Amino acid sequence: MQQNSVxxxxxxxxxxxxxxxxxxxxxxxxxxxIDTASQVVLEEPRTYEFRxxxxxxxxxxxxxxxxxxxxxxxxxxxxxxxxxxFTGSFGGGRFTGPVIRRSDPDHMCDITFERP
Length: 116
What we know:
Elements: E1 2-5, E2 8-10, E3 16-24, E4 30-34, E5 37-38, E6 46-51, E7 59-66, E8 81-88, E9 94-101, E10 108-114
Parallel strand pairs: 2-10
Antiparallel strand pairs: 1-2, 3-6, 3-8, 4-5, 4-7, 7-10, 8-9
């Protein structure tokens, strides 16, 4: 896997992608959806896996979403958030993905996994 940008990754045929969503100063209430299919949490921190099944020149579309409950913190510098990380089975390392903050208007980020 290679990182094109914070929200875009190049992936290989049949590569297994691991997604970690780490809750900071909030409950572990987040989700990962790939091609409109919700994924099952495998372990904590919230970890999801999927295999690349698109053909060359096509893209998997994903969405990470965080749910924040209760009033915002009184200290604005302690903005609750979810930090997202991606790893591919073909190497390339562990990539830092988007950060979903309570202060973000929609609490979600779109991600693409492109097959060259």
